[in-house]
Amino acid sequence: MYIPVSNPQRAKQLTESLYSLSRPNPNPDDVTTSLFSWVTHPDGRVMADIPDGISLPIAVSSNPKILASLLQPFVLAKAITANDVLQIETTLTNSKGGSVLLTDILPAFWLNQQKTFEELTELGWFVQEFNPSLKN
What we know:
alpha+beta
């Protein structure tokens, strides 16, 4: 699934904060710092690419407040409520040492705007190359 984010920097912050829930103290030699990628439309819009059904391990030493602080601009914009953020933070805290479905910690605001790869393709997000061998 793809969810809208305001810009590539926000997408990077989101994916890094989610990654930190599983790996709060990564090895300095680790190359990976993000949980998922994002795509940018030719007009500048950005969508985070979140695999469907992903279960995220939550480390005992993780800090749920990192994701909660990232959501504060959405509270200020009244896209989500402070109670939504508290519920997400509580879910993460209660899941420490276990795992949680990513869709259980993303605000409904995002989930209600999700798109599939096929939908984004129809909307011109991905360049389709002409392949003559695929003619009908």
